[in-house]
Design goal:
The chain has helices spanning 5-16, 32-43, 52-57, 68-79, 100-112, 124-130, 149-155, 160-171, 178-194, 198-207, 210-231, 236-250, 259-262, 274-282, 315-323, 328-331, 340-353, 397-404, and strands at residues 21-25, 46-51, 89-94, 116-121, 139-143, 286-292, 303-312, 359-364, 368-376, 381-387, 413-417, 423-425, 428-432. By secondary structure, it is α/β, with parallel strands linked by helices. Strands 7-6-8-9-10-11-13-12 form an eight-stranded mixed β-sheet. Strands 2-3-4-1-5 form a five-stranded parallel β-sheet, sandwiched between helices.
């Protein structure tokens, strides 16, 4: 079994947070159901799994459920002999967005407390944005992604003590020694090829056969397209066109979506595709990065939505589309191949997996673009990131302008590249690309305010 960070989080939640139901959002084929099944069977004597997508496409047992008593009746019909009580029974409602009325019912099921519940869905994000009665006080919403680079390294047999030593070097702005750098960079390039889909990683671990790995990536990519057509039959071709357009958009210099090129129709505007963008983003098969023209902390206050970049949710799917079976394009760092698109995609994937739920980039007509902006809450400023795949990592006029503009109050910027040496020049820190794995937007365990003094 692949070790995932979310496994321990879910176990802790189920053991300690007995008053809420977890809603787990995320794209298909990233391991959501597997982890819930694995942890649920460990912690509960009675684990009941109900695939609501299959039910809607088949017997429709839960289609007309409108009360908790209706729900218990149908549950008893299909799993009556397996049910215990709240202390030893976990009901897993998979693909719950298939029946939006069950989302509303979760509050009442939770209040009645007969059993413990958990729910997940590949299009749950869409259902949550469209529902007017999500029981927010009764649920905790989490999002899961494909394996990040650290989880991939675990799968490849890299010990956690090695990663801890790497993190210490990152925090102290130290370089790895040459042999370690070469090894980690090679693993990083493997990750660019394999990506983080569990089936693809397991296939790679089994025999290193990239033909079989690529077939898994093709199948999942096609599955995402099929899901789009099932979600919205009226606009399914439009959604498919936008989704298929993402790799070619990323190959352009600015990498952002030019809406008139999606269907090659003049006069098209961002608003003409707003629903399609929302589907791709909320179903977690595309990662959105929005433009910022006035970069003040917090960055969300100055978003320019019409200047949108979209990345695929898995870098392995992207490299399959771009290079198919030619693995040397990435492994050998060939000069004729510009890997900028791939490097930016993997950084977007890492940042989202590490808690940066909103991603931004800097766009300025006169000074150019900076690849990513994230909030630095410690300094209450913006942290700009520039991603370089080649030897030109010192060429970044937009970043230089960005960090030296006094009104932006930027403390520092980071350039990630293949270069081993960690060093600083002016306000810019140069780091190896794999160090992006240590950027986390994690909440602190406690934030205690000092007591008020008496007047």
């Amino acid at each position: 079994m692949l070790e995932r960070k979310f496994t321990s989080y879910l176990r802790t939640f189920l053991e300690n947070n007995t008053k809420k139901i977890m809603l787990l959002n995320g794209a298909r084929q990233i391991g959501k159901s597997y982890i819930i099944r694995y942890v649920g069977k460990q912690l509960y004597a009675h684990f009941i799994e109900i695939d609501l997508r299959a039910d809607k496409e088949g017997p429709k047992i839960f289609n007309n459920v409108r009360s908790t008593e209706d729900f218990y009746l149908q549950l008893g019909i299909i799993a009556g002999g397996l049910l215990g009580d709240k202390g030893d029974t976990l009901i897993f409602l998979d693909e719950i967005q298939s029946y939006p009325h069950l989302l509303t019912m979760l509050k009442f099921l939770n209040q009645e407390g007969r059993y413990r519940y958990i729910a997940s869905g590949s299009q749950l994000g869409i259902a949550l944005t469209k529902s007017t009665s999500v029981p927010l006080g009764s649920v905790e919403i989490q999002r899961m992604y494909p394996l990040d680079f650290e989880e991939f390294m675990w799968a490849m047999g890299v010990g956690k003590e090695v990663i801890q030593a790497m993190q210490k070097s990152f925090e102290e702005r130290q370089s790895l020694n040459e042999s370690t750098h070469d090894y980690i960079l090679k693993l990083f390039r493997y990750y660019l090829l394999v990506g983080g889909l569990p089936d693809a990683v397991n296939q790679f671990l089994e025999n290193r056969n990239m033909v079989k790995v690529r077939q898994i990536q093709v199948d999942v990519h096609d599955l995402y397209s099929v899901d789009a057509s099932q979600y919205d039959e009226e606009n399914r071709l439009k959604i498919r066109k936008v989704y298929d357009f993402i790799p070619s958009a990323l190959e352009n210099k600015k990498k952002r979506i030019i809406v008139k090129k999606i269907e090659n129709k003049a006069g098209k505007q961002y608003s003409d595709y707003e629903d399609e963008f929302e589907y791709l983003i909320e179903s977690a098969i595309a990662l959105d990065v929005n433009a910022i023209s006035n970069p003040h902390f917090p960055v969300a206050e100055s978003v320019v939505k019409s200047l949108l970049k979209l990345y695929l949710n898995d870098v392995g799917i992207l490299t399959q589309i771009l290079y198919n079976y030619n693995v040397n394009a990435i492994l050998n760092d060939e000069r004729s191949i510009n890997l900028g698109t791939v490097y930016e995609s993997v950084v977007a994937q890492e940042l989202r997996a590490h808690g940066y739920n909103k991603l931004y980039y800097y766009d300025n007509k006169h000074h150019g673009e900076v690849d990513f902006l994230i909030d630095d809450f410690d300094s209450l400023s913006v942290l700009p990131l520039e991603i370089k795949s080649g030897k030109d990592y010192y060429q970044h006029s937009a970043l230089t302008h960005f960090v030296t503009t006094p009104e932006y109050r930027i403390q520092q910027g980071i350039v990630f590249s293949n270069e081993r040496q960690v060093h600083s020049k002016d306000k810019i820190i140069y780091m190896p690309i794999y160090y992006v794995m240590f950027l986390h937007r994690s909440a602190k365990n406690e934030v205690i305010l000092p007591p008020l003094k008496s007047l």
